[in-house]
Amino acid sequence: MKYSKEYMTQDEHIDVQGIMDGLYYPFYMEYCRHQYIDEVLGFNLENEAKNGVNMVLSGYTISFLRSLKKGDTFTVTCELFRDKNDAPKIHFKQSIILNGKVTTKATFTGTCVPATGGRPYLPESLQALIEDAPILED
């Protein structure tokens, strides 16, 4: 299921060239991804952290295709994929779209780790949710 949220560039994110600094694209993707994780997956990051479960990123790739400018209203999408090797990872394919065109695309990979330390794992509640998710192919 593809999830999306709408955002507007913030003036403080615009650089001297009049475009959004590359640092902020992953932040908007994070906002959308965290809302997806909470609203769709039912995994509240704050509550889970209090219970000793930390969801963390293990990596990401990002491609910048077009720049966002001051005042742009854009859509960020998020879609869940499971790992092709059944590793304890979840993958999120995300895009930033402006006027029907993709400006940025990325894949974020995450897992969970015990707050006290230990090996990566996916809680049973997440495992059940990703069973029907498509497999991320390279």
Written account of the structure:
The chain is of the alpha+beta class. The protein has a five-stranded antiparallel beta sheet with strand order 1-3-4-5-2. The two termini are 19 Å apart. The model has no long low-confidence stretch (mean pLDDT 95).
What is this structure, in a nutshell?
This protein is an alpha+beta fold and 138 residues long. The chain is built from three helices and five strands, in the order E-H-H-E-E-E-E-H.
Topology (elements, then pairings):
Layout: E1 2-8, H1 25-39, H2 45-50, E2 53-64, E3 73-82, E4 90-98, E5 101-114, H3 124-130
Antiparallel strand pairs: 1-3, 2-5, 3-4, 4-5
Defining key terms:
138 residues, alpha+beta, 5 strands, globular, 5-stranded antiparallel β-sheet
- Radius of gyration, in Å, reads 16 Å
Poorly predicted runs of 5 or more residues: none
Major beta-sheet overview = 5 strands, antiparallel
Strand order of the largest sheet: 1-3-4-5-2
- Give the termini distance in whole angstroms: 19 Å
Mean pLDDT: 95
Residues in β-strands, percent: 35-45%
Helix content: 10-25%
Structural class: alpha+beta
How many helix segments?
A: 3
What does the overall shape look like? Answer: globular
The number of E-state strands comes to: 5
Q: List the secondary-structure elements in sequence, H or E.
A: EHHEEEEH
Quaternary structure type: single chain
